[in-house]
Structure formats: C-alpha cells, structure tokens
C-alpha cells in the first residue's frame, strides 16, 4: 500500500469515501423506504398504489420537519453582522 497511498492522497481518499457513503445512504434509503419502489409482486402488479400516507411519511422526514422551524440562513451570525448598519465608522 505504501506505493499507492501517499500522504498527499489522504484528503482525496477521505472526500471520496464521504461522497461514496452519502451515495450508498441515499440509494439504500430510496430502495427500502420510497413508496414508488415496489419490491414484492403484489405491489408491482398494481399500476397505481393508493398510499398517500406512506408517501407523506417519506417526504416529510425528521430533518425536513426540523429545518422547517429554522430560519433559512446558513450562517446567521455572519449574516446579521454584515446586514447591520454599522455607525461606529
């Protein structure tokens, strides 16, 4: 491994590992929790599934409910600092 893994490559490996794990998480979530994905034969035979509650549960997950109560700012302290009218200068 010494020939292939040099210290300069560690940040790239870390970033690629993070991105790959996010992709695996999203794909796994979609396959097992998305109401549009039909794994068993009974659901695949139906053209349109009547599962509005399941779809809302999938779309309104915990992170979305949490973020809905928060202000839409990335860095509120910096936004507040630069949006204030500084009269001290």
From TrEMBL:
<dbReference type="InterPro" id="IPR010530">
    <property type="entry name" value="B12D"/>
</dbReference>
<dbReference type="Pfam" id="PF06522">
    <property type="entry name" value="B12D"/>
</dbReference>
<keyword id="KW-0472">Membrane</keyword>
<keyword id="KW-1133">Transmembrane helix</keyword>
<protein>
    <recommendedName>
        <fullName>B12D-like protein</fullName>
    </recommendedName>
</protein>
<feature type="transmembrane region" description="Helical">
    <location>
        <begin position="12"/>
        <end position="32"/>
    </location>
</feature>
<keyword id="KW-0812">Transmembrane</keyword>
């Amino acid at each position: 491994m010494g020939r292939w893994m040099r210290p300069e490559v560690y940040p790239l490996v870390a970033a690629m590992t993070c991105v790959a794990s996010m992709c695996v998480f999203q794909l796994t979530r979609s396959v097992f929790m998305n109401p549009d994905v039909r794994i068993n034969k009974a659901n695949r035979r139906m053209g349109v599934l009547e599962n509005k509650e399941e779809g809302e549960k999938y779309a309104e997950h915990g992170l979305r409910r949490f973020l809905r109560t928060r202000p839409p700012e990335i860095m509120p302290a910096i936004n507040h600092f630069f949006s204030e009218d500084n009269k001290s200068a």
